[in-house]
Each structure stands twice: as C-alpha cells, then as structure tokens.
Amino acid sequence: MANKIYPSAKAALAGLLHDNMTIMSGGFGLCGIPAVLIDAVLESGVKGLTVISNNAGIDDAGLGVLLQTRQIKKMISSYVGENATFAKQYLAGELEIEFNPQGTLAERIRAGGAGIPAFYTRTGYGTQVAEGKETRDFDGHHYVMERGLFADLALVHAWKADPEGNLVYRMTARNFNPPMASAAKVTVVEVEEFVAQGELDPDHIVTPGIFVQRMIKLDNVNKRIEQRTTRKRAAAE
Fold it and tell me: 134-160: per-residue pLDDT in tens?
C-alpha cells in the first residue's frame, strides 16, 4: 500500500502545482474549507489559476488570500458576496467569473466526477446564465445544457480518514468536499483526525480512498465563523 500521508501541505502539493491550472476547493463560506492547503498554494506563488469553489472566502481567509495576491485568474462559483476584493477585481475587469446557480454548480462537479460530460437543467433558462449555451425542449419544457466540471487538482477538508484515504466528513463541513474529491486528476486532503485501518464504520465513509492520492494531518483546526449573529440579552428585571 502506497503511503498517502505526507508531513506537510507543502510536501503534499509538491510536483502538483503549476501556473494556469484548474483547482477545485471545497467548503461553503468558511465551513469545511481546506485552509492549510490554500495557504500552501499561496506560498507556492503559482498564478493564472482557475478556481472552482462555491464561494471565494472572505478578504483575509480561504480563497480570499489568493485573490489578494492576484494568483486567481478566473472563478467558477455560485456565491461571492462576502469578499470585497473579489468584487473590486471583477468590477475592474481584472477577474473572470463564471457564475452558476448553486445546485447547477454542485451537479456540474458531481457530473464531472461521474464521467458525465454534460446534462440538461431547467435552472437558468431565459436568463444570463443561459447565454451562449445550448438549449433544448423536453416534454414541453425548456432546458439549458451545462458541462460537467473536472479539475487538475481538488483540495478537500475531511474530519476523519484512515491510511487508505477513506474519508468521513462532519455535519455541514461536508458540503462541496465529497463531489470535488472525485472530480479531479489528483485529490489532496487535509484531515482533522486519522484512525487506524478498519476503525471507520463502512456505512459512515462518504469518499472511498480510491479517489484520494495524498493527505496531511492538521495540527490544529481554526474554525472561523464568517458572520456571527447573536441575540441581545434581555434587560435584567
């Protein structure tokens, strides 16, 4: 069995990064993002990146750090409203954007991982989303053709893993990570906790190890909250 566990993010990404590549990055907001791997991409200095991710993080965290250094050329995303750097670069014509309805983005990634080159959806028909795309009529309804997505590299965050790379995710941190893990030439995973072979309940494994090539163990996990909303305490009587 090949050793899939690497000593650091830099080591796990060695030989994989190059300019003008396409990277999938898991997460939703700041939940379940591969933050340590993103920082390693930042330190590598690769540029001209096309990044597929639900969103672009915030200005100083997640993919936002790669936008600040202008290493990202194009984003294929669904929601980017929390990142002022993203908006500034886009409005200045310095960043390409391919917007997707969120469900369409998820299905494009899943389709790419399943070897499906394209599919039809009613979502987006008659809007800017459909501009330049093939449309067809099925049973009296209009559909837009969307292409599956496949990347050079997928960066994934998982809760638990065994040495084979079988992955378990925790609650909402699961989000886009599983489909992305299957939709790239190489998948690199940052893991919160490693367990021995055979300790994972097979029914709990979401991503089989066949999709995972490299992993790192996180020394600590900084789970930031993107927007903290609290209710004011009632005045004491």
Answer: 999 999 999 999 999 999 999 999 999
Q: Is residue 222 part of a domain?
A: no
Alpha-carbon torsion (162, 167, 168, 170), positive or negative: positive
DSSP assigned state of 235: P
Q: What is the DSSP letter of 32?
A: T
Look up the domain containing 27 and give its range.
5-217
Decide if 159 contacts 194 (C-beta within 8 A). Answer: no
What is the count of structural domains for the chain? 1
Q: How far apart are CA 92 and CA 186, in angstroms?
A: 33
Token representation of residue 69: 């250094």
Q: What is the pTM of this model?
A: 0.88
Residues linked to residue 175 through DSSP beta bridges, in sequence order? none
Q: In angstroms, how far is the first alpha carbon of the chain from the final one?
A: 66
Reduced to 3 states, what is the DSSP secondary structure of residue 229?
coil
Question: What's the rounded Cα separation, in Å, for the pair 172 and 19?
Answer: 32
Q: What is the domain-level CATH number for residue 62?
A: 3.40.1080.10
In a domain, 230, yes or no: no
